[in-house]
Design a protein that fits this description.
Layout lengths: L1 E7 L4 H4 L15 H14 L6 E4 L3 H13 L7 E3 L16 H8 L1 H9 L36 H23 L1 E6 L1 H12 L17 E5 L5 E6 L3 H12 L5
Parallel strand pairs: 1-4, 2-3, 2-4
Antiparallel strand pairs: 1-5, 5-6
Amino acid sequence: MKKLVLLRHGESQWNKENRFTGWTDVDLSEKWIEEATKAWKLLKEQNIQFKRAFTSYLKRAVKTLNVVLDQMDLDWIPVEKTWRLNEKHYGMLQGLNKKETAEKYGDEQVLIWRRSFDVPPTPLDKDDERSPFQDPRYAEVPENELPLTESLKECIQRLIPCRENQILPALKKEETILVAAHGNSLRWIVKLLKNISDENIVSLNLPTAVPYVFEFDDNMNLVKDYFLGDPEEIKKLMEAVANQWKK
């Protein structure tokens, strides 16, 4: 049985402050170590032994992954970092408080910006300090691939090469894979694995640092998927994510 585990990073400082983060490299809040500890304990209880891991270029995902692997004595496994697993780019919304933005523009408009499948927020200017064009970690990425804003559809398009050329081949070969990334970059993986419609994917809310396990047979057919942890607690965490933007 092959397993793919998706893990959203622990709570970041901007998660705590309820701000749009996107590609901004915000650090984790004081709560994250508690969340990461719970995650690795749940994984250990299931006797899950990862053979390879993937993460983004953003420290909130990288640090969460590092703690989980360290506590599971798996520091030695190969880890691949890719900008394609970065969070969805929120354009000019990055740094803004979600509730204040909803008060200004309305709940419906903010929900469209956050979760619409094909409507992106207003883009940044290329020379904006928040732009990836101003960040040295993206210097080797072709300019025509760097986003200044993204819809979920565009996020999926830039993530497909990672799924097809890195994650799935590794899963076929290594059997147990961990992907530590972000709410939207993980949402696209779930959408593709479970064939969720464009409309329904909007309502999927992934809580921070809760392992989400997918099991496949040897022919890579999805057998089942499930979260690790108390179902009622996970439900409350999902509702909290869903309500972040409401005014």
